[in-house]
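agent> step 3/5: call structure_predict on target 'ABC transporter substrate-binding protein' (Stappia taiwanensis).
agent> reason: downstream docking stage needs a structural representation; sequence fetched in step 2, passing through unchanged.
tool.input:
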Amino acid sequence: MLEIGRKATVAAVFAALAGLGGTSGAQALEKVSFGTNWLAQAEHGGFYQAVADGTYAACGLDVTIVPGGPQVNNRALLLAGKLDFHMGGNMLQVFYAKREDIPVVVVSALFQKEPQVILTHPGKYPSWEALVGKAPLLIGDNGFASYYQWMISEFGFTVEQRRPYTFNPAPFLADPTAGQQGYATAEPYAIQQAGGFMPDVFLIADQGFSTYATTIETMASTVETRKDVVQCFVDGSALGWYTYLYGDNSAANKLIQEANPEMTAEQIAFSVERMKEYGIVDSGDSLTLGIGAMTDGRNADFYAKMVRAGVIEEGLDITSTYTLEFVNKGVGLDLKKKLTGK
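tool.output (status=ok):
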C-alpha cells in the first residue's frame, strides 16, 4: 500500500496516482466503506473530494461512501461489521459507547468546531448573554439532552425557555423574540429562503462547547489490525478537505448532487463559505497540526463540561474512546499553502 507522506503535496498525490496507473495490472485497491450520518451535502465534501480526485486511491483504497439519512442507521452497520468507518456527530457519541463498553474509537476529527448554532431575528439580541433567561428557544429533544444542559450549567439558561423544536422553521419565523437551533452551514440559508432575512447566528463552539465534530469512527479491532488502512483513510480525508475548501471542488459537488439530487448548488456554496467563515474545519489546532487534529486536553475539557452539566457520568476512561496515533502530523499543510498562497 502506498503511503501519503507527512506533508503530502498535490504533486505527491498525483505521482502516487501515476504509480497506481489505473490499469488492470496496477496494485489492487483495498475496498473500504465509510458511512456518513446524513444525506450527501457540502458538510461531507472533503470525503467526496478524496474519492473524486483519487486521493484515497493514491494510497491504495477504493472507498465507497454510504450516505446516511432519516431511515438509515450507519452507526449500527459499523457496530455490526458492515462498514469500516463511520462519520460521528461529536465526541459524546463515543463517550456514550464507552459507558456501554462498545469499542468504538475516533481516529480523526474533521471539524474543529461543532457547527450547532442558536439563530435569532436580526438585531433582537445583541449578545449571547442577552439570550439567557429571556429568549424562547426552539430546541429539539437531542439538543435539550446535550448542549442545552451545558447552556444551563455554564450560563444559566433555563428549562422554561426551551420550546420543542420539530425541524419546522414556521414557529421561529412567526415569533420575532424566539431563537432556534440549527447548523451554521444550513439553517441560516433555509431561514433566508423561507423568511426573506438572514438571522443572527450564535455558534455554540465559540461560547465554549468544545467538542470536536464530524469525526471518523472505527472499531478498536480495526485500529489494531489495519493500521495502514486507517492511516490512509485519515490522511486522504484531510487532503480531501483541504482541496474541497481551498481548491477546485466541482468534482466532489457533482458526486454530492448525484447522491442527493435535492441538494442545490446555491446551498452547497453557502455551506462551504460558512465552514470557512466560522473555521468549522480549519481553525485552532488544525492550523499547525493539520485538518483532523485532536488533543488530549481538548477532549478532557469537553468531557469535564459534560459531567458538570449532568449529560454523562464522571469516572469514564475517555482516553480509550479516541487515539492520536493517526493525526497531528501536519498532513496537507503544504497543500493548503499551495492552494491558498499562504
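agent> step 4/5: record observation. The chain has a mean pLDDT of 93.
agent> proceeding.
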